[in-house]
Amino acid sequence: MGEKILAYLSTNGSELQQAFLQHIEISSIAFAIAVVIGVPCGYLCWKHQRGGKPLLAFFQVLRVIPSLAILLLFIPIMGTGVLPASIALVLLAVPAILMNTTAGLAQVDPAIVETGLGLGMTDRQLLFKVRFPLATPLILAGMKTAAIEIIASATLAAKIGAGGLGELIFTGLGLNRMDLVIVGGVSVALISLAVSLLFDLLEYVLGTHRHTRRKEGSGMKPLKQVVACLAVVGLAVTLVACGSAGGSNDDGKATVRVGSKDFTENIVVSEIYAIALEDAGYTVERVPAVASSVIHTTITSNEIDLYPEYTGTGLLSVLNMDMITDPEKVYETVKDEYDKRFDITWLDYSQANDGQGLVIRTSVADQYGIKTISDLQKHASELNFASQGEFDAREDGLPALEAAYGTFDWKSSKVYDNGLKYSVLSSGEGDVSPAYTTEGQLTNTDEYTLLVDDLQVWPPYNLAPIVRNDVLAANPEIADILNKVSATLTTENVTALNAAVDVDKREYDEVAREYYDSIK
Predict the structure, then answer these.
(1) May I ask which residue range the UniProt record assigns to the signal sequence (predicted)?
(2) Which residue, of 213, 231, 267, 281, is most buried by count of CB atoms within 10 Å of its CB?
């Protein structure tokens, strides 16, 4: 594992740096806004205790809502990307700052306030020279808690295309690459540790300042020094982020943002697209491992320019249309509807058909004599189902199966990340799981068996690149570049690509590069 981590760091330093800076940028924006909201609101809750109770209760309720749920709630309103991610993180962080500000101001000793009044201090002077300075340790503790919560939760921003270190973590989970998970997780931990130490230092400096008299003309006060330092760091992060933003390369060609869903096949095919575009002279910004449930919003909200999609997914999950089983009719339908509704073009679809399926441990299949989904339905009450959540609700998921085969009365049903599916099956925690018919692990028939869809419930899921119309209009040669790639993709070679990553544990970008070199 150590060798894999070192290899990744030596070859992907710029990728890690970009993710690191994105994570700091998102976290810094959210923290700054949370402070601007939390401290004044905390003051109001202390000053007007009766009127402040509803405000305090509102933010306390927000605090118990999962961060990912808040992220997803903002998608219909704001789309995907940095803005909804930042707002969700702000809502997560404000309660800690607000409550600690309220508590800090409330615990100031009344005797000290009386002394200030006796010295002729005004209410304003009491507030800024007595109350807030004495409440500072508790306020800083609230800010420290909020900052660490933001940094940890910012990893989820990658699920809606906002970037950051979460991309490494979710890509690692999707590819079963623990080296990526460790690099991303350790990086987040290091940022949290640095921020924690910074707040400890700030509290120490301010505490020392309150008990010592500074000589006149000795320079900026400690607080101003720290604020100036933070401002310089924030400016540097902003400049780096702006400097790496989209535009054109030296050849005058546009920067193309290529996204992918959060599982092996989509990531690998997306990388093949990216390499093909780079080979044609384009600069490519990769946006990997976006949650399948939000990637459509990511492209329609102009966070990415293109990604690999599946005809059946477009028909049923995005367009919510009736099922069609003819591949050409499905393609023509999604092509027309996407162009009308979303200004998105479906390029040529490939022969690779990554259809929906169910995988079962071979030992369990042999034990109960299960070969088809009809067999499975009869034994469902004896089996543990490892779902990926959305499969239970999608029209082409469990509802479609139950409409054809009858109810699946599982012994138990739990939701797991898609990248953990085969680990869950292998460990015996689950017996059956949704699968796609090109997954590399399915080559290991001693361990896993793909069940036969004997009633032919599922429609075709042919793989194709989809591109925003404005991007295609400005760069028409993209169609020819990606269509040439699609023409080479078959169910067999896509399964082999997946196996190279998931079974042989090769680097996904290396596998993609090798495949592209073989077809160009």
Answers:
(1) none
(2) 267
Residue 226 burial (CB < 10 Å; 0-12/13-18/19+)? middle
Question: What is the reported pTM?
Answer: 0.64
- pLDDT of 291-301, one tens digit each? 887 899 889 98
Classify 320 in phi/psi space as left (phi over 0), alpha (psi -120 to 50) or beta: left
Identify the helix (H) or strand (E) that includes residue 115.
helix 110-118
**In 3D, which of 27, 344, 354, 270 has the Cα closest to residue 158?**
27
The architecture of the domain spanning 255-353+460-519 is 3-Layer(aba) Sandwich (3.40)
Cα 147 from Cα 163, distance rounded (Å): 18
Which of 54, 39, 36, 196 is CA-nearest to residue 104?
Answer: 39
- CA 164-510-444 angle, 5° bins: 100
- As given in the structure block, the two tokens for residue 315 are 């028909």
* 2-243 fold: MetI-like fold (1.10.3720)
pLDDT tens per residue across span 351-367? 999 988 999 999 999 99
Q: Are 260 and 266 in contact (CB under 8 A)?
A: yes
- What are the sequence ranges of the domains in the chain? 2-243, 255-353+460-519, 356-450
The amino acid at 410: W
Q: Do residues 140 and 203 touch, judged by C-beta distance below 8 A?
A: yes
- How many Å apart are CA 423 and CA 291, to the nearest integer? 20
Distance of CA 346 to the CA centre of its chain: 25
Torsion of CA 473, 292, 258, 323, to 10 degrees: -40
Cβ-in-10-Å burial (0-12, 13-18, 19+) of 239 comes to exposed
- The CATH classification of domain 356-450, taken from the options 3.40.50.960, 3.40.190.120, 3.30.420.40, 3.30.70.260: 3.40.190.120
φ, ψ of residue 65 to 5 degrees: the values are -80, 130
Tell me, yes or no, if the two domains 255-353+460-519 and 356-450 fold the same way: yes
Give residue 161's region: left, alpha or beta (phi > 0; psi -120 to 50).
left
Q: Return the axis-axis angle of helices 13-47 and 132-153, rounded to nearest 10°.
A: 140
Cβ 313 vs Cβ 462: under 8 Å: no
In terms of Cα–Cα distance, which of 287, 277, 286 is closest to 251?
277
DSSP string of 295-363?
HHHHHHTTS-SEEEEEHHHIIIIIS-PPP---HHHHHHHHHHHHHHHHSEEE-PPPS-B--EEEEEEHH
496 close to 352: Cβ distance less than 8 angstroms: no
Cross-strand pairs, 254: 248
Q: Give first-to-last CA distance, the chain, whole Å.
A: 33
Specify which residues 223 forms β-bridges with.
none
